[in-house]
Design goal:
Elements: E1 2-7, H1 16-31, E2 35-40, H2 54-57, H3 69-78, E3 81-87, H4 95-102, E4 113-114, E5 120-121, E6 132-138, H5 149-159, E7 164-169, H6 181-201, H7 206-212, H8 219-229, E8 239-240, E9 246-247, H9 251-257, H10 263-273, E10 285-291, E11 296-302, E12 307-309, E13 321-326, H11 328-335, H12 341-346, E14 351-354, H13 356-360, H14 362-365, H15 377-386, H16 393-396, H17 400-409, H18 414-427, H19 435-452, H20 457-475, H21 482-487, H22 500-529, H23 536-563
Parallel strand pairs: 1-2, 1-3, 3-6, 6-7, 10-13
Antiparallel strand pairs: 4-5, 8-9, 10-11, 11-12, 13-14
């Protein structure tokens, strides 16, 4: 298929709409081979139609204006699909793209024909009955309703209802906000799927079209974010003078500043607009952002429903406090994705004091509200897939009969071992199982087979401790150590696995547990042979309990120590 993309955005390559268009093209190219020609309308020399009708009367389909439009018309004639990619400008097309459409007059003949809907039209000069048109457009509003009616009508009349497929994206400015990049990528993946479906079927299924119409952010949240983005205060409506002039009603002093605000204040307002209270689990907290290079400090009250920036005269409530001291330039670079936040922290570019757990949830706290529960079929399917969570107990509990029942009952503990393996299999119906669970199952199964083969009980117990410790210790050599995989849900889910500090903390914790159990495998035979042999189980349990207490302390102490710059 030959595809012509008319990039009608004055921003050219920086167009938000173009991001959607290219995602759609990527989906089409996945489904088959296409020849794509992309024209940036803003770079073309396109004069305005003069209304001379020479293209009808004397030039036989050729315009008298010598500019780039002749080549564009040739490209349109070659195309099987024309993608009109543009932002909504004052409820219509950007002016240069409208000029391009005006100059398409040579593609028609001057004669009068009746349309099926009762209107009048001019017959085409060329047979373009095979040609389809796609409208891909973004707007700055939080709704496409009552904003795109003029566009829809214009394209319907010009090309026919059946020949035009629209993808209209409200809240288009969010496509360039770094804090929402994951949500934007989810949307662009959906657009790519729509491209693949269009290439296959010649249309976008209703279910996909419905998903594409979903807002990236709730309308109220988007309105707050969009208002804060301008960096100026809302001004009163101006009164119009009866002599034809305009009165701004603001006075000389206000007009001179034009309502400008400190850049960091607008940034904080945007953070507040993107607040998501779910990570706090119904509690409240205080966040202080102290920008050391601008000498500005802001107090954010993270409430149960929304985030409020406290005024200078408002007292701070008695709540858990997190204070971030950072250059504004560093923090905005992190927000834009230009710097990794954890790396910057570990390099000492900023410091955090107080409740560090809040810091670990920053991405989810200010990544926009949780998506609506009114899920589309595809989202419902994804929700079903994600419903089951991993549980570390599934890695530990299969070993319990080896450590508790076997030392007491000896070979008579076999029924307990078998029961543990059966329960392990049933647990997979409730929780997500993966490689670690499979390793635990294989190792405990090996111990069971060794007992059935007549291996000494003491040797099987020693093997169990060593195997457990090696499993944990070797996981430190992978990208995600064992404890990180199971504790991530408390720190933002999969996003935590990209946090170097979170991973480093869990490497240490996992390694300590692994070394403890390898050491336990070594000292257990010695304890059995000593006068304290009857207390071996109690001693091993006590050391594990002490390590558990240390883990609870360390997973808070170590990140906080790094955050304080120590």
């Amino acid at each position: 298929m030959t595809i012509l993309v008319l990039n009608g955005s004055p921003r050219g390559e920086k167009s938000n709409t173009l991001k959607i268009t290219r995602a759609f093209l990527a989906g089409m190219n996945e489904a088959g081979s296409n020849r794509v020609e992309e024209l940036t309308v803003a770079d073309k020399n396109i004069g305005h139609c003069r209304g001379c009708f020479a293209c009808w009367k004397t030039q036989k389909g050729t315009c008298v204006i010598d500019d780039d439009m002749g080549g564009i018309l040739d490209a349109i004639l070659r195309a099987d699909l024309v993608i009109w990619s543009f932002p909504l400008y004052y409820f219509s097309l950007p002016s240069k793209l409208k000029a391009l459409m005006d100059r398409m007059l040579p593609l028609n003949q001057p004669f009068m024909d009746a349309r099926a809907d009762g209107g009048a039209t001019h017959p085409p000069r060329y047979d373009l009955s095979h040609q389809k048109h796609m409208i891909i457009s973004t707007c700055g509003f939080y709704s496409t309703e009552n904003n795109y009616e003029a566009i829809r009508a214009q394209f319907r009349i010009a090309f026919g209802t059946s020949a035009v497929t629209p993808i209209l994206c409200a809240e288009g400015e969010l496509l360039s906000i770094p804090e929402l990049r994951e949500r934007v990528q989810t949307y662009l993946s959906l657009v790519r799927r729509a491209g693949s479906e269009f290439a296959r079927d010649g249309s976008i299924p209703a279910a996909t079209a419905n998903e594409l119409s979903q807002l990236l952010l709730p309308a109220e949240t988007y309105a707050k974010l969009a208002d804060a983005n301008w960096g100026i205060e809302r001004q009163e409506i101006r009164k119009v003078k009866t002599d034809g002039g305009a009165s701004d009603g603001t006075g000389e002093g206000d007009a001179s500043t034009n309502g400008q605000r400190e850049e960091s204040a607008s940034f904080i307002d945007q953070m507040a607009a993107l607040y998501n209270p779910l990570p706090l689990g119904g509690s409240e907290a205080m966040l202080v952002m102290a920008f050391t290079d601008t000498n500005r400090e802001y107090r954010l009250l993270l409430g149960k429903k929304d985030c409020r920036v406290l005024g200078a005269d408002e007292p701070s409530p008695d709540l858990p406090l997190t204070r971030i001291e950072t250059p504004f330039s560093v923090w905005t670079a992190i927000a834009r994705g230009e710097r990794d936040g954890t790396s910057a922290l570990m390099e000492g570019s900023y410091r955090v004091t107080g409740n560090f757990d809040l810091m670990l949830n920053m991405d989810t706290l200010f990544g926009g509200p949780a998506e609506s529960n009114a899920a589309t079929p595809a989202r419902e399917e994804a929700s079903r897939d994600d419903r089951k969570k991993p549980n570390m107990a599934l890695v530990i509990l299969p070993w319990m009969p080896l450590w508790i029942a076997l030392p007491i009952l000896g070979p008579a503990a076999l029924p307990f071992l078998l029961a543990a393996l059966v329960l392990f299999q049933l647990a997979g119906l409730r929780w997500k199982t993966g490689n670690h669970e499979r390793i635990a199952l294989a190792l405990t199964g090996t111990a069971l087979l060794a007992l059935l083969a007549g291996a000494p009980v003491s040797l099987v117990i020693q093997f169990s401790y060593a195997a457990f410790g090696l499993h944990w210790l070797l996981s430190c050599l992978t990208a995600v150590p064992l404890t990180a995989w199971y504790s991530k849900e408390g720190y933002g889910g999969d996003a935590a696995l990209k946090n170097a500090l979170f991973i480093n903390t869990n490497i240490i914790i996992t390694a300590v547990w692994g070394l403890l159990y390898i050491a336990t495998a070594l000292w257990t035979p010695l304890l059995y042979a000593s006068p304290a042999g009857m207390f071996t189980g109690a001693i091993n349990s006590l050391t594990a309990a002490v390590c558990g207490i240390w883990t609870v302390w360390f997973q808070k102490w170590y990140p906080a120590r790094v955050a304080r710059g120590k």
